[in-house]
Amino acid sequence: MAVFDPATARSRRLRLALLGLVALAAVATAGAFAADPSESVPEPVRFDDAVELGLSSETDALMAGDATLPRVQVFYSQLQYVVGYNGIASFVDSRRDGRTERQFGYPLVAYVETFDHRDPGTTESGLFAAGGAGGWTPVGEARYVVDSDARTPAGPVVVPFASRDAAAAFADEHGGSVVGWAAVRSRSFDVDSAATVRALAPDRWRTANDRIAAAERRADRPASVVVGEDAPTIGAAVAAAPPNTTVRVPPGTYEETVTVNRSVTIAGAGSGTGPGATRVVGDGNGSVITVHARDVAVTGLRIAGTGNRARDPEAARASRESEGGTWDTNIQLGYGYGDAGIKAVGAPGLVVDDVAVDTEASGILLRDGSHATASGLLVEGTDEWQDGFMGVAGMKSRVTVTNSRFEGGRDGIYLHRADGSIVRNSTFVDNRYGTHLMYTGDALVADNAFRNELFAGVTVMTRPAGHAIVGNDVRNSSAGIQASGTRTYVGYNTRVGNELGFSTSARGSLYEHNVVVDNELGARATTVVPSSRVVANDFVGNGDHATAGAGALRVWADGDRGNYWDGASVGPHAPGSRAYRPTSPVDAALHRHVSAAAVRESPAARLLDALRGTVPGARSGSIIDPAPAAAPYHPERVDAVTGAGADADGPVRADWRAAGEPAGNATATAEGSA
Amino acid sequence: MNRRLGGVWVVFRRELATVRRTPGYAVLAVGLLVVLGGLVAVGGGGATGFVPAVVDLLLPTEVLVPLLAVVLGYRALFADAASGELGVIRTCPVSAAGYVVGVLLARTAALVVLVGGPFALVGAYVWLTAAPDTGIFATHSGVDSPVLFLRFLALVVPFGAAYLSLSAAVSTIATTRRSAFALGLLALLAGVLGGDLAVLRSLSAGASPSGIAGSLALSPNGAFRGLVFEHVIGVSFAPEGGFVDTGRAVASLVGWTVVGGVAAVAAIALGPRVDVAVEHLRARLDR
Q: Where are the residues of the annotated region Disordered (chain A) (predicted)?
């Protein structure tokens, strides 16, 4: 064959082409090793486009635009999303234990918001403030003022500047010293975590006890006026009663609306339906009892005949057009101005005890600091949630609710900017949302039962911080508990037979000791960048135990302590020795089809098992539990809803106050994020 | 000099033609592509970038690339000897070294195409399809870059070449096709498992872990894995490396290739003389 002849022109051309190819490959290879992929540094992005971690950016002062939180955006080597930290302390703190680095890789570059030429200063309350958003400077190049008199809502603030002069000028005015990044990095910041919230939950329970005891003392006043004997109507009796006395309302039906302008107790004979009860029936317009004075108590009444106006559309529209209002005037006016059985405006210290409200709108409507305590409250709302409104609506009013029941209507309890509210030992049935928190932080929602909720048992919207949602029992609802926000503790809850047990929407949070049984979907991982811990939960008999939305791999465990997944131990391995992936199709079927165990042992499946899990930041939408538990953490609660007594509808109680003491449970140390 | 190169070139062309006429090799390449593609598709690593894809591919690569290299190499020199063609070639003006170099170069070129091709296709697939889960948030590629996959590819080729030349060398001492196959398999197992088992053994025997970076580099698999960690995967873990002694690992891969080549040359060149010596010995014993 001629092609073997080395002398032909064709052969020479071939030889040259081959040489060229080899040279090209050599150059490309050399180039690939010479180039440093970690050297190409991405430009800063709009902070709104980053995935936020750290402090809540929705405290009142920040929302109102008065105060400013210096922010950081970080590009991690393995994570495709840009992570935004509210507050420099959050970023520094996240690097302390190395957990972030293991999940997302090292920071390729971090930019900090700098405030040169932005009129940095403080508000009247000492919060750091600046005129407009700052520029972005790499953390290593910026200068920082520490120990100045400026603060954030969470504590001391580190104020960054691009130039040393601007930093020095700020330090001259507000004290403190100018340091470099190395000094800031090595500082330790007191950043609260969800574990702090867990430790606080029993305290909040005790706070509720104190509030209720104080309310009982407030309501217990000497009788002065008896309706029917000393005055013809309740309204007249209240007008005649001296402050700090009790107006007695004997059994019977009173058709009137009452306005209370002094601190008295209105005491009926009881809220029942029998002849011994006291009924107050309004005229179907406006609220039945309107309270304008502090420390008013309403007890032993059955209230009906409310108007059906849920809110004031006129006010809402006006606020949109005016410019003077605060950021949420619209909702405040809209939601705060409807009709109710009892409506309190600027009336702190309201006590409601043994009261039933049959309402077309709200049961109790609280506005403008009407901090209230309710126990033994029964609110029966409309059959269709669109027709009615809230069982208790607290607008800028902190509520303490215990031993109450909310049926029908829109939301059982709706709270808007009602920090520190406590809802416990209550029952919610057939509402839209059972308990619905907006812009409300540091609340306790504990030991409640939710049944047949149209949207969800407990929902926390917006991004508040520091909620404890503990010991609740949600069944037959669209969703069990959906809490967004940060630093939220969701523990010891039981969810049975819901479409969705819970979602891990809250960031930097702790989800533990929950029992999740027979839901269509047990849990859903939502936040794109994992920052929470999900550990020691029991997943039993759910259609799917858990699914994950877009984002990095979620590791649901805390060191060597995982969750219990029924089905995870099927197969020839020692229980708990094999990682469990609820998002893998094979693992997800283990508790439903035994045959899945055979597929799982195939070389292909085991090979994939061995491969996945590294570079977690660059893995998309999935969950792994590296150390699934061999047995449920709370078999007694699982048995209570699956065993012989499963038909009983009574709420399952978890002894979280004994178990949740800080020393008893050290889950907040090692690895694992959701 | 020119004449010697010309000899190598002729052997090279002849050997390439041999490979081209063996359809089994193309089937193997397709099989490799199916396995790699399947792993990237099912493993999920390729969905987000090159580094996770390489993580998914590393283990199968360590097994499949040596396998393919051994398949390409185990008959390379044996076949000519068995068919008697080697005797014919000896009459041509081609030295033993020229012959071995020509054959090995051709087989290596085939390796580049048959192994590099599937890997390159998988890389192209990742390049075209890898994207973040959601576009709601700002995204960036981290340290992930096609350059890293190119590095991986550039490491796969010398890794395969080492096995190719070793298996070719081993095959020269085989006398039957079956024994060539068995010897190739032995080289494969010794290479894929032996080196790392030796490292594990020395560790459990009390050797200092500080020597791992050096001892790991001695076997072709260890050297390859170390280099991939150092220059591909490790880039996304921490700015500083230290998984393996890079110089030693590269020297190891090149060294195994050269050792294989030299051993083959020696076997080809000295083989007839050994035969003669053996005949002499036998004749003397018979006497």
A: 641-674
